[in-house]
Structure to design on (933 residues):
């Protein structure tokens, strides 16, 4: 009983933080229509600015070329001014993000805004990694460090103080939104911007004020909670996932429900920690289960959303505004041939390090193709695909380590399992769409990664040994295979050929899918689910087929990764990497095979990144900062991604040289010729 | 002969609001039935209930098949097609592709096989329907670049592409000018007959009365009149429903996005 109380109270800290971030998520949504993935990153930013000033008097600066990392402002500051400057930094960034990004996305879909905030999250995380490195810092306390005795249980007093702070904030927010002119105008603006203008406040200013408010609050929560948590680049930033879950439960509306849900989540997490110490609680081979709370969060969200969702969007529902165009490829065989030829030649000629980068590119392209099918064709933003790749890699590792099953059956089993898991997790999401789906699948990805892949016993464990090399009819196709030509070294070009062949086949599959009747059905579902159903298309079946194909591609990517890494670690498939992949796929072009290839080239440790490191001396984190900023720019300026720009330029060229015969606005007219 | 479409005590309730109450309508094969009524009378809700988009009690029979337990796409495949007030074309597809996805009932595993063999969707029915409506020249145009009138026609064409036995048209003339509207009327008249029965919902009384065989008037979710077009204007209940008796000749206020 005493333990129950102890752990309930210990959960107050993280519960209050989740609740607090949930509040900022609601403010962002009500004020600016934004599902804000970057709230946690603002908390992290505030905590770091405070940390640097408080401990050494340094004001950190954004990572700009040729600029210093920080300005030294005397010795360590005292708490109050450091806190104030931290909040000012958050306010400034919130202001910039609103004016430069959200203002231009006013007419865009919630999804576009969400992706922009993802760009900001990645940028901020990478910036902090550049400034402070991957190791956590010990955050200076703000509250008193005393402990209180509650029924004989010692509890740090700061948990109560922080909880009180969050509760007061929630109450104040609720009052402001209910009674003040600003609050009324915000509520009116959420309904219709014209109405808000009539209330005498411009929608622009409302959005800006709310963005700044959300940023400042997030920063304050970060500064106050960091001492009880960890000050690193991921803990505070990724607390946004349960926070968004809490906000989702509150329909991004009620501050009261957010607070209750947030606290409940923190307390559940803490109680699960306690339960795991009890003898009856299931363990994995004697080790406690990691990520149980993440699994519970995912299940709660999935159940709530499923029971609330509709198989079809209701009449008059605001449907997602259009996604970027998804033109069908005019030719498939020729580009596939060119890509294969270039790939083979470069694999042979490149020195080993570049060859590794090329192989990374090729595998990343397969992962991006998986996103093209599910997001580009059917319009479903799923962040789960990378977790599925991890599942496939895991099964492959386990099978080759423990049994005699080898290539190609072991990877096929892994891929099949990825498809099964993909379809199972897709089932509860069929009734959820748009940004809600992004949140569910994000929670799902975290659950898969933390509960399953990170588990020492039934997840990845480096001690289990390496993945067996792929062998076919006695020929080694793996990274250590012998190959006589070229510069030698590992990985072997032979393994590159294997990856390339698989990726080209995947690209051809996706391009043919776009042209086929099945692909047309997917685009019909993407355009309008109700109209699709009225045209005799089973929306559920079409989505499931898309999930199946997307999971298949993700499973293939995962198997190739496993062969490439040889010893696989669960961190290769965690949520940060999954999120960055969504960014790269979107940046390249989420709707086309060309876009997937560009996304593959851009991704971490792929060719462009490696070139940037070698030729320009840019670190991986600098490139991530760039990628995040580019992602924001893409969403604002050019939702078709880099591939969209490329195809438009080529189309214009083509029209100049071929006279005016082919309007290439959608390139789709050409499909007729191919089909008949 | 079995009716093409028959409803029995079809009712829709949203909370405490009775959107439709015990509506009973019969469409004979080849018949063109007009459904009119003031704004909010439940006309679109009726089509939604027929097509499975609104939760309804009572029954819907298509020929001798009950549609009650079927989901929207199954009703469409059974032969009940509908259009939308705001066209709702698939903007990512060309006109021909819009029709092709509606005309096909290939199961997914077979279409997945077609992907592997590099086949594109079938085109024959789509072309025939476009020709029938005189818009074959639009086949390869992207749905986004159509004019308002063209969007309406393509919406009708897409509904026809599934070779339905019953076609429900939700305000096909809304947003069209007088000439376009009467041209559309002539085309619709030409489509009826044979096996195809049509239910036409429209605000344009002139259009409805001039081409329909039977007219049904809805008011507050109830049928207040059922009979030949000539008798409508004389009916006192209908006059009352339209407040002051002047049938709304004004074009619909709803416009497409």
């Amino acid at each position: 009983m005493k333990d129950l109380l102890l752990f309930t109270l210990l959960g107050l800290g993280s519960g209050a933080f989740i609740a607090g971030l949930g509040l900022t998520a609601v403010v962002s949504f009500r004020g600016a229509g934004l599902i804000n993935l970057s709230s946690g990153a603002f908390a992290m930013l505030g905590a770091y600015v405070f940390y640097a000033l408080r401990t050494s008097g340094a004001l950190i600066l954004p990572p700009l070329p040729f600029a210093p990392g920080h300005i030294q402002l005397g010795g360590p500051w005292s708490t109050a001014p450091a806190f104030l400057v931290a909040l000012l930094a958050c306010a400034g960034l919130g202001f910039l993000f609103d004016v430069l990004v959200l203002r231009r996305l006013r007419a865009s879909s919630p999804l576009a805004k969400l992706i922009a905030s993802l760009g900001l999250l990645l940028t901020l995380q990478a910036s902090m990694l550049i400034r402070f490195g991957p190791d956590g810092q010990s955050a200076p306390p703000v509250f008193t460090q005393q402990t209180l005795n509650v029924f004989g249980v010692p509890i740090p007093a700061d948990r109560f103080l922080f909880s009180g702070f969050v509760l007061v904030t929630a109450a104040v927010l609720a009052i402001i939104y209910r009674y003040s002119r600003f609050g009324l105008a915000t509520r009116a603006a959420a309904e219709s911007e014209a109405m808000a203008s009539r209330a005498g406040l411009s929608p622009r200013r409302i959005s800006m004020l709310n963005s700044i408010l959300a940023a400042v609050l997030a920063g304050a929560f970060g500064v106050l909670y960091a001492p009880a948590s960890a000050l690193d680049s991921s803990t505070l930033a990724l607390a946004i996932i349960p926070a968004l879950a809490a906000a989702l439960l509150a329909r991004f509306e009620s501050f009261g429900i957010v607070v209750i849900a947030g606290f409940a989540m923190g307390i559940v997490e803490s109680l699960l920690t306690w339960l795991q110490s009890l003898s009856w609680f299931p363990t994995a081979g004697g080790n406690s289960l990691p990520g149980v709370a993440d699994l519970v969060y995912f299940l709660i969200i999935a159940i709530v959303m499923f029971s609330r969702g509709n198989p079809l969007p209701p009449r008059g529902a605001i449907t997602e505004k259009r996604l970027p165009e998804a033109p069908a490829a005019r030719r498939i065989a020729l580009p596939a041939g060119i890509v294969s030829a270039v790939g083979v030649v470069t694999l042979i000629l490149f020195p080993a390090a570049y060859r590794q980068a090329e192989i990374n590119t090729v595998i990343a392209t397969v992962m991006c193709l998986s996103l093209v099918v599910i997001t580009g064709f059917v319009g479903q933003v799923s962040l789960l695909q990378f977790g599925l790749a991890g599942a496939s890699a895991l099964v492959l590792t386990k099978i080759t380590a423990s049994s005699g099953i080898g290539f190609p059956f072991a990877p096929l089993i892994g891929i099949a399992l990825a498809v099964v898991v993909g379809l199972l997790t897709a089932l509860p999401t069929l009734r959820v769409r748009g940004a809600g789906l992004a949140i569910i699948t994000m929670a799902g990805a975290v659950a898969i990664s933390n509960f399953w892949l990170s588990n020492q016993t039934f997840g990845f464990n480096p001690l289990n040994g390496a993945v067996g090399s792929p062998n076919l009819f006695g020929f080694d196709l793996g990274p250590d295979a012998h190959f006589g030509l070229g510069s030698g070294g590992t990985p072997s070009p032979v393994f590159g050929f294997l990856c390339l062949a698989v990726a080209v086949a995947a690209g051809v599959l996706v391009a043919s899918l776009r042209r086929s009747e099945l692909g047309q059905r997917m685009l019909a579902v993407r355009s309008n689910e109700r109209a699709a159903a009225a045209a005799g298309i089973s929306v559920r079946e079409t989505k499931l087929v898309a999930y199946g194909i997307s999971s298949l591609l993700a499973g293939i990517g995962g198997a190739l990764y496993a062969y490439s890494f040889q010893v696989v670690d669960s961190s290769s498939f965690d949520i940060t990497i999954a999120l960055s992949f969504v960014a790269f796929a979107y940046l390249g072009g989420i709707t086309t095979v060309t876009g997937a290839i560009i996304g593959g080239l851009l991704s971490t440790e792929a060719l462009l990144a490696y070139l940037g490191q070698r030729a320009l001396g840019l670190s991986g984190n600098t490139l991530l900062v760039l990628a995040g900023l580019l992602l924001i720019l893409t969403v604002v300026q050019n939702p078709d991604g880099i591939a969209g720009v490329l195809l438009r330029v080529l189309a214009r060229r083509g029209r100049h040289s071929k006279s005016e015969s082919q309007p290439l606005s959608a390139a789709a007219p050409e499909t007729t010729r191919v089909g008949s | 002969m079995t009716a093409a479409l028959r409803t029995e005590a079809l009712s829709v309730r949203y909370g405490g609001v009775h959107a439709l109450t015990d509506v009973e309508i019969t469409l004979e094969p080849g018949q063109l039935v007009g459904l009119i009524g003031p704004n909010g009378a439940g006309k679109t809700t009726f089509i939604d209930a027929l097509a499975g988009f609104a939760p309804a009690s009572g029954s819907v029979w298509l020929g001798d098949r009950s549609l009650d337990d079927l989901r929207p796409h199954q009703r469409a495949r059974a032969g009940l097609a509908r259009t939308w007030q705001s066209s709702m074309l698939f903007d990512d597809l060309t006109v021909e592709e819009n029709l092709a996805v509606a005309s096909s009932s290939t199961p997914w595993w077979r279409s997945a096989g077609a992907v592997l063999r590099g086949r594109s969707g079938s085109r024959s029915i789509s072309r025939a329907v476009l020709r029938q409506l005189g818009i074959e020249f639009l086949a390869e145009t992207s749905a986004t670049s159509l004019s308002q009138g063209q969007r309406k026609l393509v919406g009708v064409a897409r509904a026809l592409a599934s070779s339905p036995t019953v076609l429900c048209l939700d305000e096909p003339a809304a947003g069209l000018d007088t000439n376009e509207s009467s041209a559309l009327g002539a085309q619709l008249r030409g489509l009826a007959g044979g096996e195809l029965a049509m239910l036409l919902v429209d605000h344009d009384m002139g259009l409805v009365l001039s081409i329909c065989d039977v007219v049904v008037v809805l008011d507050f979710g109830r049928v207040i009149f059922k009979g030949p077009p000539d008798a409508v204007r004389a009916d006192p209940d209908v006059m009352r429903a339209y407040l002051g008796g002047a049938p709304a000749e004004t074009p619909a206020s709803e416009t497409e996005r």
The beta strands of chain A are 58-60, 70-72, 147-150, 153-156, 471-472, 475-476. Chain A touches chain B through 45 residues (CB under 8 Å). Residues 378 and 526 of chain A are 5 Å apart (CA to CA). Residues 658-676 of chain A have pLDDT under 50 and may be disordered.
